[in-house]
C-alpha cells in the first residue's frame, strides 16, 4: 500500500505530464494554423471549403473521417493544372511532329486535322477536338519506341515556349493547384491526373512538375506493339488510337485503374463532368470543384461558348449540386509562379 506522500507525488507527476502534452499540442496546433498551406489562394469561401473538407476527412474519431487508403483525389490536366489556351499544349507538339515527317505522308495534305496542322492553321486543328489531340501525335510518332518518344517529348518541352507568356509550357502551371496537390499529399491523399491528353506525353514531366509519378496518371493511349530490334524487345508506337479518356470514359477509367471511388475531384470543362458526378455519387464527405477561367488579364476568360475547355453543363450542375467553383480572378492571388516576374526569370 502506497503512503500518502508517494500517492501525492505520483498524482502530481501525472498532472505535470498531462499539462506538458496539452501545452505541446496547443503549440503544434498554433504552428499549423500559422502556416498557410494555400498561400496563393485568396481568403474566402472557396479556400475555406477546401480547408474544411480536408480537416473533416482527416480528423480521427469523427464521423466524417476517411481512412488514408480511401483518400483518393483526381485532377484533370489541361485547363485544370496547366493552361490549355490558345490550344492544348499537345496539339502544338503534334503540329511540329506532323511537319517533321510530312514528306513521308503526302495523303495528309487532303486529310484533317493533318491538313490544318501542315498549314499552321491552329483553329482548324483545335476544331478536331480531343480525338484530333490523340490522332495527330499517334500518326506523326508512329514507329517510335517508347524511349524515343519520351526523349522527343522532353526535348520539345525544353525548347518550346508558350506564345503569350514566353515561358516553357511546364512553367505555365497553376501555382494554386500545385499548392492544393501538395496540401492533399501532406494529409495522406493519393493524387492522380485523369486527362484526355496522351499518357505518354504526360509521363516525361508530371512527376517533376506536379510531384505525381507515372503510375498515378490516367490518359489517352495509342496501340503499342512489341518488336525485336538489335536482338532486344522494344515497344513501338502505332498510328492506331487505343483509348480516349474523355467524358464518361474518365469515370470508367478511374474505376478500371484505381479501383476506388475518389472523394475529391477537380476539373474545368464539361468533359470532366462525368468524373465529378462519379465522385459526388459516393457516400460520406465528397468534394467536387471546377476551375472557372475568368481572368483575361493574367490568363484567359472562357466558359460556355469556348471551343477548347467549354464549361457549360458543368457550371449548371455545380450550381444545382453545390459544388465548389473556383473563380480564377477572384479566388487566386496569383495564377502562375512567375506572376509579376519578367520572362526568363
Overview of this protein structure:
The chain is built from 14 helices and 7 strands. With 345 residues, it is an alpha/beta fold. The chain has a single domain, classed as HAD superfamily/HAD-like (Rossmann fold, 3-Layer(aba) Sandwich). It has a 7-stranded mixed β-sheet, with helices on both faces. Helix 13 links the parallel strand 6 and strand 7 (324-327). It is globular.
CATH fold-type name: Rossmann fold
Give the total of domains: 1
Outline: globular
Structural class determined from secondary elements:
alpha/beta
- From the coordinates shown, what is the CATH architecture? 3-Layer(aba) Sandwich
Work out the helix count.
14
The strand count comes to 7
Q: Oligomeric status of the shown chains?
A: single chain
Distance between the termini: 75 Å
- State the strand order across the main sheet: 4-3-2-1-5-6-7
What is this structure's SSE topology?
Blueprint (H helix, E strand, L loop, with lengths): L3 H31 L10 H14 L13 E4 L13 H13 L12 H6 L2 H5 L2 H12 L5 H14 L15 H12 L3 E9 H4 L3 H5 L6 E13 L2 E12 L4 H10 L6 E4 L5 H8 L6 E6 L20 H9 L2 E4 H4 L14
Parallel strand pairs: 1-2, 1-5, 2-3, 5-6, 6-7
Antiparallel strand pairs: 3-4
Helix pairs in contact: 3-6, 11-12
Amino acid at each position: 500500500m502506497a503512503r500518502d506522500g508517494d500517492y501525492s507525488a505520483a498524482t502530481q507527476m501525472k498532472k505535470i505530464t498531462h499539462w506538458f502534452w496539452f501545452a505541446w499540442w496547443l503549440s503544434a496546433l498554433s504552428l499549423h494554423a500559422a502556416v498557410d498551406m494555400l498561400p496563393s489562394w485568396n481568403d474566402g469561401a472557396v479556400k475555406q471549403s477546401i480547408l474544411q473538407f480536408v480537416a473533416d476527412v482527416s480528423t480521427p474519431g469523427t464521423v466524417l473521417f476517411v481512412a488514408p487508403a480511401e483518400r483518393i483525389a483526381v485532377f484533370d490536366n489541361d485547363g485544370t493544372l496547366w493552361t490549355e489556351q490558345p490550344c492544348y499544349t499537345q496539339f502544338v507538339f503534334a503540329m511540329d511532329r506532323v511537319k517533321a515527317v510530312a514528306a513521308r505522308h503526302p495523303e495528309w495534305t487532303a486529310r484533317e486535322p493533318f491538313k490544318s496542322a501542315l498549314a499552321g492553321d491552329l483553329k482548324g486543328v483545335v476544331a478536331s477536338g480531343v480525338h484530333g489531340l490523340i490522332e495527330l501525335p499517334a500518326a506523326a510518332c508512329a514507329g517510335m519506341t517508347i524511349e524515343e518518344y519520351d526523349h522527343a517529348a522532353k526535348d520539345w518541352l525544353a525548347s518550346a515556349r508558350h506564345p503569350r507568356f514566353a515561358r516553357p509550357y511546364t512553367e505555365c502551371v497553376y501555382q494554386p493547384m500545385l499548392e492544393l496537390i501538395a496540401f492533399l499529399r501532406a494529409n495522406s491523399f493519393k493524387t492522380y491526373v485523369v486527362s484526355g491528353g496522351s499518357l505518354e506525353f504526360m509521363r516525361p514531366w508530371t512527376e517533376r512538375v506536379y510531384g505525381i509519378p507515372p503510375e498515378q496518371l490516367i490518359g489517352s493511349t495509342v496501340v503499342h506493339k512489341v518488336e525485336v530490334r538489335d536482338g532486344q524487345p522494344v515497344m513501338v508506337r502505332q498510328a492506331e488510337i487505343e483509348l480516349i479518356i474523355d467524358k464518361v470514359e474518365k469515370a470508367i477509367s478511374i474505376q478500371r485503374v484505381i479501383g476506388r471511388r475518389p472523394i475529391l475531384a477537380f476539373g474545368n470543362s464539361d468533359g470532366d463532368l462525368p468524373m465529378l458526378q462519379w465522385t459526388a455519387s459516393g457516400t460520406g464527405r465528397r468534394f467536387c470543384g471546377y476551375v472557372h477561367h475568368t481572368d483575361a488579364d493574367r490568363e484567359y476568360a472562357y466558359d460556355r461558348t469556348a471551343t477548347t475547355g467549354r464549361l457549360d453543363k458543368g457550371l449548371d450542375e455545380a450550381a444545382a449540386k453545390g459544388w465548389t467553383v473556383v473563380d480564377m480572378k477572384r479566388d487566386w492571388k496569383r495564377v502562375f509562379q512567375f506572376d509579376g516576374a519578367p520572362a526568363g526569370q
